[in-house]
Amino acid sequence: MLQQTARALRARALSRRTLSSYSPPSSRFCDINDLSWQLHSVPHLIAPFDASMTMPVLEAAENFVNAHGHLDPLFDVHESKFEPARISDKSSPSASPIVLHPETKSLLDEYVSAGFTQMQDPDGMDLPYTLTCAVNAVTSSAFTSGVLGHWTLTQCAANLLAEHGSPELVSKYHAKLIDGSWTGTMALSETQAGSSLLEIRTKATPTGNPGEYKIKGAKMWTSGADHGMYDNVIHMLLAKTEAGISLFLVPKNLVNDDGSLGARNDYEINGVNHKMGCRGLANCYWSLGDETGGATGYLIGEEGKGLNCMFFMMNEMRIHVGIGAAVCGKRGLQESLTYAVDRIQGRRKQPNSPPKPIPIIEHNDVKRMLLQQKAYSEGAMMLCLFAASLSESSEKSNKLLLEVLIPLVKSWPSEWCLEANKWAIQVLGGYGFTRDFPLEQIYRDNRLNMIHEGTAGIQSLDLLGRKTMMADGAAFKLFLSRVGEACERHSSDPATSALSAQLASATEKLADTTLHLVTKMAAGEVDEALASSHDFLNAVGHVAVGWMWIEQAGAAAADPAYEESHFLQGKVLAAKYFYENDLSKVPEVCSRLRNSVSVVNSTTASHLLH
Ligand SMILES: Cc1cc2nc3c(=O)[nH]c(=O)nc-3n(C[C@H](O)[C@H](O)[C@H](O)COP(=O)(O)OP(=O)(O)OC[C@H]3O[C@@H](n4cnc5c(N)ncnc54)[C@H](O)[C@@H]3O)c2cc1C
């Protein structure tokens, strides 16, 4: 469906949507007009690409969520179960102890047959990566339970394989991953090894056959590790060899040279984790090598360089986590907007007629809650799309900038779009706290995003402890100078000049603070500096999102349709709100980080325990 639509419309070369043609969202789940606007109408962020494809593919994605989005609460309520006794045919390649909601398979099949798994296929649609991320934003907007995470993980596993796998492995496994025949996972974590993957105990020993190893150990938290829906599951798995942490491809069913499926690999699913949210994607713990002494795995990349290779997948997944969080924020905004328009509370006196009932959207504090959600979710989405665009660039400077942005893209949307969801629930009052509305599910689902793919704490250490000093500080300086250029560009337009001055001042203070903290670390006061890493992460994140907002506000204000368009005016208002409410806090945080040592430093475990 998607492929046909895309091909037909590529030929027609639809002219790009202009700002004045913006119309309100046609789906309760997503806002494809805003996504299209962010992709094509905000200069300096997204590398330009053929815009004729954008609306057709986003519309196809919107049709998909409109048709199937009602299923998501089922995946939330009917959590996956672990029932090994129910496997009727152990010889079947798809035999699995995991029982999912029966609609899961048909939904995932629909996704495949609509062509969404093949958007990046060079022989197929070959869409720009940034556009595929926007499509993922639309499809995931209705499936916050994470059920489509099966295909996100698969796509990222396929990309990792293509980047680092040997030609033999690529030819055997890649096509089946992108045509939707098999699914993929990332299997890093173990019970004792989460944030610190150096602690993994799973071991791999060479069998003597080139590239082949026997793997023994146990994995924890693997999303989609098994499901019984498709014939094979391909794990991207970390294990230790004598050379150190290495990356392996571990199939559920071995694959013969002619591509047919061979014997079942030696691993066992031992159970599922019962989660507060994201229940559409079974999360498993499992052990390898219990029967024969080792599951078969194939080395990807060099021995001992597994983490370096795995970062390719982790970084892509981190962009997807950011998108997932931004989408939850925007979905919360849409759900709470719909409610706020209809919900009547209070009456306003009017001369010579009965008091007029007031929809809550007219109360200032409710407007504030809605504006805050808009500022966070659309700022976050712009940041994610920008990162996606950088990641498809081959320019060295863009790659360097992306290194700084990755921890921000992962962590800022997860923290602040969860905050947005808090306000979405608040708009609904007591109803927001019930299961009659989707917001409580969205909030629970979004809560995962601060945890997986590296917790917020780990992202903050990565940013302050590593990225600020990357390439002798060149990466972070590049970030600061790109923000500075944006300030310069928007300094003379009356609509953005005040924002520009505020952002320039916050950026200057951030630069001083960064230098101060980096100098401290260089002088050996690493723990003292890192005690402030979370505040630092948010200060940098606020500046980055401030940058995203000034670009959006500048683009909106410069549009000839600005005076008549509430959409465009709304962009400027959301930017102003973000600066007034959030960016304004950055200078205060910076001076605290510069001028005082955090009390955290003098607090010991014993102080907290007594
Ligand atoms: C639903 C779900 C799905 C997941 N899916 C996958 C998956 O598909 N594949 C996979 O491999 N993993 C997966 N994970 C695992 C996930 O990546 C880890 O949970 C995460 O990295 C944190 O590890 P942990 O749970 O062991 O927490 P810990 O590492 O024990 O951390 C606990 C707390 O301590 C903090 N902390 C730890 N070390 C430090 C430090 N050095 N300095 C400061 N603070 C620190 C952390 O920030 C955190 O707040 C999933 C997890 C969940 C919950």
Please name the defining characteristics of this protein:
single chain, alpha+beta, Butyryl-CoA Dehydrogenase, subunit A, domain 2, Butyryl-CoA Dehydrogenase, subunit A, domain 3, 21 helices, binds flavin-adenine dinucleotide
The SS-based structural class is alpha+beta
The portion of residues forming beta strands comes to 5-15%
Based on the structure given, which CATH architecture of the largest domain is correct?
Up-down Bundle
Overall pLDDT: 94
Number of helical segments with 4 or more residues: 21
- List low-confidence stretches: 7-22
Keywords: FAD, Flavoprotein, Oxidoreductase
Protein name: Acyl-CoA dehydrogenase
Family: Belongs to the acyl-CoA dehydrogenase family.
Cofactor: FAD
Q: What would you note in describing this structure?
A:
The termini are far apart. This protein has helices at 2-12, 32-40, 54-68, 72-77, 103-113, 129-141, 149-164, 167-178, 306-342, 364-391, 396-427, 439-447, 456-465, 474-489, 497-522, 526-530, 533-558, 566-581, 586-595, 599-602, 605-609, and strands at 81-82, 98-99, 183-187, 203-206, 212-223, 233-241, 244-251, 253-255, 261-264, 267-272, 283-288, 295-300, 344-350, 353-359. Strand 8 and strand 9 (261-264) form a beta hairpin. The strands form 4 sheets. Strands 3, 4, 5, 6, 7, 10, 11 and 12 form an 8-stranded mixed sheet that branches. A two-stranded antiparallel sheet has the order 1-2. Strands 8-9 form a two-stranded antiparallel ribbon. The chain is built from 21 helices and 14 strands. Helix 15 (497-522) runs parallel beside helix 19. The model is unreliable at 7-22 (pLDDT under 50).
